[in-house]
Amino acid sequence: MLHRTIPPPRAPRCARSPHRSRAGYAPRQPPLKRGSDPTEVECSSLGGPLPMSAPAPDICRRFATLQSDPDAVVAALADQLDRDAQLTVVFVSPRYDLAALGPRLRELSSGDVIACTTAGEIGANGFQHGGLVAMSLKSPLIHAETWSFDVASGADVGRVAAAVDRQLLAMPSDQQAAGILLIDGLSRHEEHAVAALYAHLGELPIVGGSAGDDLAFASTAVLDGDTFRSGRATLTLLRTSLPLTAFKFQHHAATAKRLVVTAANPDARMIMELDGYPAAEGYAAVLGVDVAELRRRPELIARHPLMLRVGPEHFVRSVRTIDAHGHLQLYCAIDRGAVLTIGETRDMVPGLRDRLEALHRRGPIAALLTFDCVLRRLEMEEAGVDETVGGLLSAAGAVGFSTYGEQFAALHVNQTLVGLALGMPEHG
Question: Which pLDDT belongs to residue 311?
Fold first, then answer.
C-alpha cells in the first residue's frame, strides 16, 4: 500500500548534517531542523527579516499574458525573458496551438526550457485563466539540467534517477539542489513516478505539479524537447549556491474522525468501501449527512477532505466524483487498509499570508515557483477570496499554475500549494 511501502519523507541531503551526507550535499551553514517545520525543506540557511518584494530582475524575469495570438505571445516572451537564462519555465493554457508553440518555446533560450499545460495560471496579475505565464532564471550561481521520461516506464524513471544521482555526486560542496517535476496530469502514474524517484533520490527535495487542461480532463501535456506530449514528464535538477527552500501549504487540519479503507482499486484511484460500508455511505455518515446530500453538496467534500497520515504529517486525498455505485473516485491512489482522517477547512488567507511572510523573513527571494491545486482555486472562487489570494502570490513574486495534483518529497498530493523559493546572494 502507498502509505506502508513509502517511508515517511527523510530530510534532504542538503538539509542534513555534513557528516551524514555524501560529497556535494552539505550546506555551507547549519540548516533549519526538519522537525521545526515539517512543511519546509531548507537547502540552506536564509538571512534576516526583509519585507516581501518582487523577484530580483537581475536573476528572475517574469512574464504573464492573456493574449491569444501565439505570434504576439512568443514575441513578447522573447523580449521580456532572458535568452541566456540557465532555466526558463513556461505554464501555458491548452487553448493555444501547442504543436506550433512547442518549437518556438524551445527557441526562447540557450538554456533549458520546461513547460506544461495548465488549469489556470499564476503570475504577476495573480490568478488568470486561458493565458501563459513564464519566468527565466539567469545567474552564474545557477545550473539547471533537465531529463524527460515516460511516466509509465519504471526503467525510464530509473535511468533519469541514475543520471541525476551522478550529477549530485559531482556537485560542489557550496551548492544546494532541488528537483522540479512536471508530469502528465491524466496519466495516473504520478504516485509511481514520484515514489520511484524518491527511492533513488530520497534526500533530494522534489516539488512539482501535474499538468492540467482547464478541467476538461481530456488531454494534458508536458514539453518534451520542442514538442508537447502526453504520457511524459520532465525532472529538472536545479543546483545553486543561492539559498533554496522547498515548501508546502495546505489549509486543512486533521480531526479525530477516522475511516478505514476496506475495499479499493489503487490503479483506478477508487475507494469502494469505508469501514465495510459503500464508500459514499461511510463518508456521508461520518459527516452527519446522507449520500444524496453528499452528492448534492460537493462543497462538503471540499471542506472536509479525506487525509492520509504519512509520518508526522497529514496529506489531502481529494475526492473527484461519486459514481453510480457509491464508490469514491479520487485524484490520488489509496489502497485497502489505509486509515483516513477527516479534515476540516481553515481560513486559507491568513495562513498563506503567514507562510509567504515567513519565507521572506528568512531572506530576500529572487524567484518563487509555485504549484497550486486547481481544487484550491475552485474553493477560493466559491469563497470569493481568489483575488485576495492571487494578490498575495503576485506580491510575493510567484509564477506557477493551477495543477491536477502536486508532488512533494515522496508523495503525490491534492488541495495543496507546493513551491520552491530561490534566495538572493548573501551580499547581493
Answer: 84
Residues 322, 303 share a domain: yes
Q: Read off the C-alpha cell for 285.
A: 455518515
- Tens digit of each residue's pLDDT (9 = 90 or more) over 254-301: 999 999 999 999 999 999 999 999 999 999 999 999 999 999 988 888
Residue-range definition of the domain harbouring residue 370: 2-52+114-250+348-423
CB atoms within 10 A of CB 114: 22
End-of-domain residue from the set 345, 371, 390? 345
Give pLDDT, residue 313: 86
How far is residue 94's CA from residue 120's CA, in Å, rounded to a whole number? 10
Q: Are residues 162 and 220 in the same domain?
A: yes
The reply to whether 288 and 172 lie within a common domain is: no
Report how far residue 234's alpha carbon sits from residue 247's, in angstroms, rounded to the nearest whole number.
Answer: 20
Cβ within 8 Å of residue 281, ≥6 positions away: 274, 291, 326
All residue ranges of the chain with pLDDT < 70 are 1-57, 427-428
Judge if 308 and 398 occupy the same domain.
no
Burial of residue 274, with CB atoms counted within 10 A of its CB: 0-12 exposed, 13-18 middle, 19 or more buried? buried
Which pLDDT value is given to residue 52? 46
Per-residue 3-state assignment (H helix, E strand, C coil) for 311-355: CCEEEEECEEEECCCCCEEECCCCCCCCEEEEEEECCHHHHHHHH
Q: Is 145 helix (H, G, I), strand (E, B) or coil?
A: strand
